[in-house]
Task: structure prediction
Amino acid sequence: MIRPAELIEQKRDGGEHSPEGLAELILAYARDEVPDYQMAAWCMAVYFRGLTVAETDALTDAMIRSGETLDLGAALGRRVVDKHSTGGVGDKTSIAVGPIVAACGVPLGKMSGRGLGHTGGTLDKLESIPGYRVELTTEELVAQLRDVGMAIVGQTANLVPADKKLYALRDVTATVDVLPLIASSIMSKKLAAGADAIVLDVKVGDGAFVKTLDDARALAEQMRQIGVRAGRAVTCLLTDMDQPIGRAVGNALEIDEARDTVRGDGPGDFTELVLEACARLLAHSDLGIDVEEGRRRAETAVTDGSALEIFERWIRAQGGDPDPAALERAPVRRPVPASRDGIVTRLGALAIGTAALELGAGRRTKEDAVDHAVGVLCFAKRGDTVLAGDDLAEVHARDDASADRAVEDVLAAYELGDEAPPERGIVLDVVG
Ligand code: URA
Result:
């Protein structure tokens, strides 16, 4: 039997765990045999000392072994592709990517999480659709993938339970932004769900857990290597999280924007991210096409209406009403006017994410309820020219007091200058 204190001490002093010792620690924690305070101390030791490649592999493997695994590929008799994001502000990418990829003939069954901190979670966004069921049995999931080609569900209780516990603990002990812990958290879930190929959207910037391009590259490489060692194909997109993605931040508002994008009417940066992710997923699929052909087919699915058709069938299949009129709307809407003429030189993603959180779009603790209707629409983005009095953004709030506060917060997130900032696309680099 391991003694957790010995492992904490070993890591604190810069030592390397044996794969067996590390696996025992993680499995014992998942069985509630190691208290949170010791696990928190271990996470903090990892924050300062890191994990070796062998330790990261052992951690990932133990996380997978803490619960059940799925083999969607075997159930469908096909190669299965999956995507995951490291977490961002206004990140509704999976909600738009899934229907497009499915319309191209490639099933996408995705397990998603809830938002924590200033980043939103895909499940919370989907739950703003009245009736949408996030829990499907494995049989229902497989049947829906056969029938519609797409599903987004919550992580089942038994899939990587060690990550569920550890992630919640990391969230409240300032140990989320630790590269090997992020890498094993994400990859354990993707490997346990049985994906053959994985496209990872690694967010980098002020609204992401990873702030610099160098760290994002290092994280991407760690995740790719974990996947490759497990015999899976992995491509990582490194994408800009210095400003919110698209315009919408807030649950129902993001559903609107995802739907608009699926039918070819989305904001430019978000559309680019979605099409790039689709192209990479299709290139990894069993269609036998390259990235350029994947991109072409994804664009066609958007323009010919087939992606929108899948979007609506998918929402209905999971019990939801796909009509945008069914979404709850916030009672108070406030414009955020520009105070001067100028060019938007900066729009802080963290500040907008935090403003949306304060409005009630996210949770401060795991127990908080989410207000699906509230959020922020950012009309002006980095590089846009505005005149004094133009609407930079619009706040959607539950009441006047929270709207007043949010208008100030959103205004403070914008910096206006006289010179255009350097142009930068949303996809900064591709690894693998
Ligand atoms: N997303 C995850 O699933 N895990 C992390 O550790 C960070 C982002």
Remarks:
- The longest strand covers residues 197-204.
- Residues 86-87, 167, 176, 181-182, 185-186, 209 surround uracil (CB under 6 Å).
- The chain has three domains: 4-65, 72-324, 329-417.
- DSSP finds 17 helices and 13 strands in the chain.
